[in-house]
Design brief:
Elements lengths: L4 H26 L9 H8 L3 E3 L2 E4 L1 E2 L8 H5 L1 E2 L1 H13 L2 E3 L5 H5 L8 E9 L2 H14 L3 E5 L12 H9 L3 E5 L12 H19 L5 E3 L7 H8 L5 E7 L2 E3 L6 E5 L8
Parallel strand pairs: 2-6, 2-12, 3-4, 5-6, 6-7, 7-8, 9-10, 10-12
Antiparallel strand pairs: 1-11
């Protein structure tokens, strides 16, 4: 019997095609990837940005402004009664307060959150924080972050060292740095900016025996160079005045915040 090479080739090709189709069908059935792309898991992981919805609310003055001509102060103020009402509203709506230093851990899933997280920030370290806000914080048992300008401590309308010691001792207040002299960082020399960022932290760490972890840009002004300086100066996060409530690994050094007067979706 003579062997027909064309027939044999056809049969072999048919068998190989059948085998290929069988493998594809089996693979689809079991949902198994026999030929994964090189480093596919690494690529997929890199595409995922860790983030969380954490409103950070900015406060300045909490007081009753008596000078009707002080429009700047009036624009940055709410009354103590309004502040206490806002805290009650946050609690009713299921929010839990956290320090800014907690935010990196929340985003990374290292800090467990049972309720909706929110962070309350008080910029500049004004005296009314101690006289009007601190009693409410203790009564309501909430956490807040206060950004201090070291060279303003003890001056008119600012907290004294003794008052700052007391609020730290409560365990309800995180102290953060707001530069040494509240300067517009992008407008000064790189050397001056670096000194403002580092010296303020060093002073607060040493004076109050704490570890300052977060930073606040004066006036909300920063750029990439300034943000990198903060990052390289042993801070774990920094807050800006970029509007928003979504915080992520990508913006740890310019966390979004909202001024209290514009946060009507909660209050």
């Amino acid at each position: 019997m003579r062997i027909d090479l064309k027939t044999i080739s056809f049969v072999i090709c048919a068998l190989l095609l059948s085998l290929y189709l069988a493998i594809i069908t089996f693979k689809s059935f079991l949902n198994i990837n026999f030929w994964p792309a090189k480093n596919s898991s690494v690529k997929e992981k890199a595409m995922v940005t860790l983030s969380a919805e954490i409103p950070i609310i900015i406060y300045h003055y909490v007081e009753i402004v008596t000078d009707e001509r002080d429009f700047i102060r009036k624009g940055l103020s709410i009354t103590p009664a309004t502040f206490q009402s806002q805290i009650k509203t946050l609690k009713v709506k299921g929010y839990q307060t956290f320090f800014v230093r907690d935010i990196p851990g929340i985003i990374k899933g290292q800090i467990r959150v049972n309720k909706k997280p929110v962070s309350l920030n008080f910029d500049d370290g004004y005296a009314d924080f101690y006289s009007d806000v601190f009693p409410i914080i203790k009564k309501e048992n909430i956490k807040v972050t206060v950004y201090i300008v070291p060279q303003f401590i003890g001056h008119l309308n600012y907290m004294t060292k003794e008052q700052i010691y007391e609020i730290i001792a409560s365990g309800l207040v995180e102290i953060g740095s707001h530069t040494n002299w509240h300067v517009d960082l992008p407008s000064v020399s790189l050397e001056r900016a670096k000194a403002e960022i580092i010296d303020s932290k060093t002073f607060l760490d040493q004076e109050f025996k704490i570890k300052v972890e977060t930073f606040c840009y004066p006036y909300g002004y920063y750029n990439e160079t300034i943000a990198n300086l903060v990052k390289s100066s042993s801070y774990t996060a920094a807050v800006s005045e970029v509007y928003g409530t979504t915080q992520s690994i990508d913006n740890l050094y310019f966390l979004s915040r909202i001024r209290v007067g514009y946060f009507n979706t909660i209050f």
